[in-house]
TrEMBL record:
Biological source species: Kingdonia uniflora
InterPro entries reported in the protein's UniProt record: 26S_Proteasome/COP9_Components, PCI_dom, Rpn6_C_helix, Rpn6_N, TPR-like_helical_dom_sf, WH_DNA-bd_sf
GO cellular component terms listed in the entry, alphabetical order: proteasome complex
Keywords from the UniProt entry: Proteasome
Annotated protein name in UniProt: PCI domain-containing protein
Similarity comment: family membership: Belongs to the proteasome subunit S9 family.
Record-annotated PCI domain positions: 254-422
Keyword Metal-binding set for record: no
Superkingdom of the source species: Eukaryota
Length: 453
């Protein structure tokens, strides 16, 4: 075997290790030459036709390794990234999606910034669809914020920061989310990016609502509506605004207005087949129950729109409506127990149902104690089918709130109900006389002041 030494000499290399090194170099070169495949539509088709998802993922990675930067190759690579993200999401390989964003950074430098933003947001959305990845999403967004700051990609950074604030809020890291939004909203207002401003104001409203600061939540929602009026708002975003409006009106006990907002949100989400449609419908039913129209719930569920969403969420609201119609605390508690995930774990429904439960309990207690002047607390607890300590606590609260006149004799374990005191007719007349005398004295004082002047 012969080797070219660079000195125009031919030497025998059988007796040294040059042959071995040369063979290794050739093998590596050949391997590198075939570590990618052409970025063509045929390659994409080959990846999609592969029987095994792992094989498809491998082919798509090889397409991305192609060094070609022609316009056609870039277009094929964008398609490959989209397909790869979907496959990794389906396979629940969240860490690989995170690594993919890092691997694609050289590719981002050769494509337009708008396309970069679309790809980055698409991959983050893919990670979000994998259950149990909230911490990974937060760390991923923080990494991307750092990268966008370094690359001076303001447009993308603002949107990733908005997404990060949303994730922090879901993770109940409210102070960090609020600090991030406060800086972001000032920056976006200066740039006058209305569409992003609507998102941020809406997110800020949700954040203040989670912190139980209703005035600021309403102010942020008003700001979101003002910004939305100046631009075209996508139906999904308009539905989100209506949903938040309904939640805030329901919090103020204005259930009729809340119902109309929830209905608008339901119409928008239903047309888009958005999963939030069922929650809008659920809150519509809640409003019907809260305004003492529980009989309408069954009709709404059996309507054409309601039948599409029949399931545990609507079954839970129907059970609550039945319990409320029958004024049965036992049925109410059964519904809360049987549909715990749909009622108690939904903070909005749980808050209003707690108020409804208290109202129902007070109505039942007042009805039960009405015939008595003195009654044992044990007897009341048996009639209402609730624990004695729970009934005793509620009765003491009702006495303090002056729902009825009475006292608890804890030594005897009895409730003593007083007769309603009759108002004496002389008291109002006396108060009116004193008021008139005061007016006369004031008038005389003014006249005397004028005479003395």
């Amino acid at each position: 075997m012969l080797q070219y030494t660079g000195k125009l000499e031919v030497v025998d290399v059988y007796n040294d290790h040059s042959v071995h090194r040369l063979l290794i170099f050739v093998i590596k070169f050949v391997a590198m030459s075939f570590s990618y495949i052409p970025a063509t539509t045929d390659s994409i088709a080959q990846a999609l036709e592969a029987k095994d998802p792992s094989e498809s993922i491998s082919i798509l990675y090889q397409i991305l390794e192609n060094p070609s930067s022609s316009s056609e190759a870039l277009r094929i690579k964008e398609q490959a990234i989209s397909n790869l993200s979907d496959l990794l999401r389906q396979e629940k390989r969240a860490e690989e999606l995170r690594s993919l964003l890092t691997q694609l950074r050289p590719f981002f430098s050769v494509i337009p910034k708008a396309k970069t933003a679309k790809i980055v947001r698409g991959i983050i959305d893919a990670v979000a669809k994998i259950p149990g990845t909230s911490d990974l999403q937060i760390s991923l967004c923080k990494e991307m914020v750092q990268w966008t700051r370094t690359e001076k990609r303001t447009f993308l950074r603002q949107r990733v920061e908005a997404r990060l604030a949303s994730l922090l809020m879901e993770n109940k890291e409210y102070s960090e989310a609020l600090a991030l939004l406060s800086d972001l909203v000032k920056e976006v207002r200066r740039l006058d990016d209305k569409l992003l401003l609507v998102d941020i104001d809406l997110l800020e409203s949700k954040l203040h609502f989670s912190l139980r600061n209703l005035p600021k939540a309403k102010a942020s929602l008003t700001a979101a509506r003002t910004a939305a009026n100046a631009i075209y708002v996508p139906p999904a975003q308009q539905g989100t605004i209506d949903l938040q409006s309904g939640i805030l009106h329901a919090e103020e006990k204005d259930y009729k207005t809340a119902y109309s907002y929830f209905y608008e949100a339901f119409e928008a989400f239903n047309a888009l087949e958005d999963p939030r449609a069922i929650f809008s419908l659920k809150y519509m039913l809640l409003c019907k129950i809260m305004v003492n129209q529980a009989d309408d719930v069954a009709g709404i569920i059996s309507s054409k729109a309601g039948l599409q969403y029949v399931g545990p969420e609507l079954d839970a609201m129907k059970a609550v409506a039945d319990a409320y119609s029958k004024r049965s605390l036992k049925l109410f508690e059964t519904a809360l127990r049987d549909y715990k995930a749909q009622l108690e774990e939904d903070p909005i429904v749980h808050r209003h149902l707690s108020s409804l439960y208290d109202t129902l309990l007070e109505q039942n207690l007042c009805r039960l104690i009405e015939p008595f002047s003195t009654v044992e607390i044990d007897h009341v607890a048996q009639l209402i089918e609730l624990p004695v300590d729970h009934v005793e606590k509620k009765l003491s609260q009702m006495i303090l709130d002056k729902k009825f006149a009475g006292t608890l004799d804890q030594g005897a374990g009895c409730l003593v109900i007083f007769e309603d005191p009759k108002t004496d007719a002389i008291f109002p007349a006396t108060l009116e006389t004193i008021s008139n005398i005061g007016k006369v004295v004031d008038s005389l004082y003014i006249r005397s002041a004028k005479i003395m002047a």
